[in-house]
Amino acid sequence: MATQRAAAVLRPALGGIGASCVRARCAPRLQFSSRTLCIQAARPRKLSPTIHHSVRNSSSDSKTETVAKTGLYQLHSKYGAKFVPFGGYSMPVQYSDLSIVDSHNWTREKASLFDVGHMVQHEFSGPGAEAFLQLITPSSVASLPTYTSTLSTLLRRETGGIIDDTIITRLPDKFYVVTNAGRREEDRAYLEYELKAWKEDSSNPEVEWKTLENQGLVALQGPLAAEILSRALDPKATQALKTLYFGQSMHAVIKDTDAEVLVSRGGYTGEDGFEISIPPYATEAITQFLLDSAKDELRLAGLGARDTLRLEAGMCLYGHDLDETTTPVESALSWIIGKERRANGGFHGDSVILKQLKKKSEGGGVGRRRVGFVVEGAPAREGAHVVNEAGEQIGTITSGCPSPSVKKNIAMGYIKDGLHKSGTEVEVVIRGKRRKATVTKMPFVPSKYFKAPASK
C-alpha cells in the first residue's frame, strides 16, 4: 500500500487524520466579502481537476501503482517540495527551506500550512443521515449542535473494530465527514455496503451520500494561526473568529474572492489551528494568498513534520495505532462514545464495546490499552516489542520518533491491561537490545487548543 511505502521511506509512519474535537456552543453561519484589501491577493482561478499518472514505486513486488495529485501539487513543486507516495497521492514530505525538525519547531513557534487535500471529504444528507451515522459510529451525532464537530470511528458490525477514524461536523442541512486517504477504497466499500443494507429496510428514511472530489483541504496550525487567518477574512468574520472555539466551524468568504470556505477550528498538532475546506477552483489561489499574507510567520510543512507533531500531541495514525482489530476502548478513545450511547447502544459492535466499558469485576474490561512511552537510549519504531523484566512480550510499539520538542525518544503503542498506568517501567527491544522505557501519559506536549470557557 502507498501508506506503507511512505512509512518505509520516512520512519516513523506519517500523517494522522486530525485533532479530536469536543462539543461546544453553536457557531453561527457566516458569509462575508470585503471591498478593502490590506495585502494583494490573487482572485481564485479555476484549477485543473486532479491529475492521475503512473509511477513505479520502490517495493519488493515492483508493481506499478497509480498515484494522484492534489490541487496544490504545482504549488508544492514551486516551493521545492520533496514528494513521496502516501495514501494514494504524491505528497510533500518536506520543503527545501526547512528540515523536518526545523519545520516541526516552526509550527510550534509560529505557524505552518499543511496540504491535507488527499483526505476524503464526504457529505451525508437527507432525513436519515443522522440515524445512519448514529448506527455506524458510537458518537452522539443526534445531539451534536450545528457547526460543531466530533472525532469518531466507523465500526465493524460484529466486533466493534475500527474501520477508520473520522471527523463528523453537523452543518445546517447536512453532515460533513472527513476520512483517511489511505482507507479510501476500504471506506468506500464499507459505506456502500452499509447504505445498501440501510435502504433494504423500507422503514429507514432516505440518506444521500456525496464525495467531494478534488475539494481542497488545508490545515493552518500554530500559535499564530488565528492571527494569520483573521487577516484573510472580512472584519466581521474576523470578529466571529475570536469566539470560534475548538471543535466549531463556520462558513466564510476569503478577502477579494467569491469562494466560500468551511473553516473548522481544530487540528492534529496540539496547537491552535484551523482546517479549511476550499472549492477546487480556488484551492491554489487561497493557499498562495495565505502564504503571501504572512511571509515571515507562515511556511508550508510536509508529512515529516506532520508526523512528529501528531505523535507529540498523542494523535493516532490509522494502519499503525488503529486498525480493524482494535476497538475505541482499547485505543483509549472511549471518550468519543456518548453518554446516552453507553446507556442505549444502537451502534455497530455495541455488544462488544459496551461490555469492554464495564469493570473487570462486572465481566468487562480489555486485554490491552494504548499508551505513551518515553524510551531511553534509542528511538523505538513501529513493531518493536515491549517486554517485562523476564523478557516476556507485554506490548507492541505502533509509532515512535525522537521528539524535537521534549528532546526525548517518545512512542505510542499497546500494553497489557494492568500495566498501562503512567510511571510503569518496562523495556523495549530495539535492534536486539533491551532499552528502558516508562509508560507515560499523552499528549507528550501540552495542548494549546482554543476551547470555550468552562461553564459555571
TrEMBL record:
Biological process according to GO: glycine catabolic process
E.C. designation(s): 2.1.2.10
The top EC class, named as a word, is: transferase
Name any one Pfam family assigned in the record. Answer: GCV_T_C
Signal peptide (UniProt feature, chain positions): none
Keywords in UniProt for this one? Aminotransferase, Mitochondrion, Transferase, Transit peptide
Q: Residues that bind substrate, according to the entry? A: E275
GO MF term (any one): aminomethyltransferase activity
Q: Which GO terms describe its cellular component?
A: glycine cleavage complex; mitochondrion
Please list the reactions this protein catalyses: N(6)-[(R)-S(8)-aminomethyldihydrolipoyl]-L-lysyl-[protein] + (6S)-5,6,7,8-tetrahydrofolate = N(6)-[(R)-dihydrolipoyl]-L-lysyl-[protein] + (6R)-5,10-methylene-5,6,7,8-tetrahydrofolate + NH4(+)
Per the record, the domain of life is: Eukaryota
Record bears the keyword Transit peptide = yes
Localization, UniProt = Mitochondrion
Report the residue ranges that make up the Aminomethyltransferase C-terminal domain in this protein.
Answer: 368-445
Q: Which residues cross the membrane?
A: none
Domain (GCVT N-terminal): give its ranges.
72-339
Q: Which InterPro entries match?
A: GcvT, GcvT/YgfZ/DmdA, GcvT/YgfZ_C, GcvT_C, GCVT_N, TrmE/GcvT-like
Record flagged with keyword Flavoprotein: no
Major localisation? mitochondrion
Provide the function of this protein: The glycine cleavage system catalyzes the degradation of glycine.
Q: Which family does it belong to?
A: Belongs to the GcvT family.
Partners and quaternary state? The glycine cleavage system is composed of four proteins: P, T, L and H.
Its name, as the record gives it, is: Aminomethyltransferase
Organism, as annotated: Melanomma pulvis-pyrius CBS 109.77
